[in-house]
Amino acid sequence: MTPADFKTIRESLGLSAQWLADAVGVDQRTVRRWEDGALPLRTDVVALLTQLDKQMDADVTDELARITAELAPGQGATDVDQLLASMTPQSWPTTTVP
Questions:
Q1: pLDDT score of 35 more than 60
Q2: Residue of 5, 16, 9, 19 lying closest to 54 (CA atoms)
């Protein structure tokens, strides 16, 4: 993983550099230096970030399937964009983020 990929994944997960630093027991400057390529990435931190990214993908996929089933029960795989386009925002289903 490149430093740029590392930063992109962290940001796409909505994690601050400070949060990641606290989670892995380093200073925020260390995270910035990993992302700038000034320090080599730690394999354990790359593994953690990769696992968080995979879990987020799985959670989003599961929630999308749940919403799709709620919007079009019994229709199987359906184009979510088409379903949402036919609805008003007030009628969109809600979800709880853990």
A1: yes
A2: 9
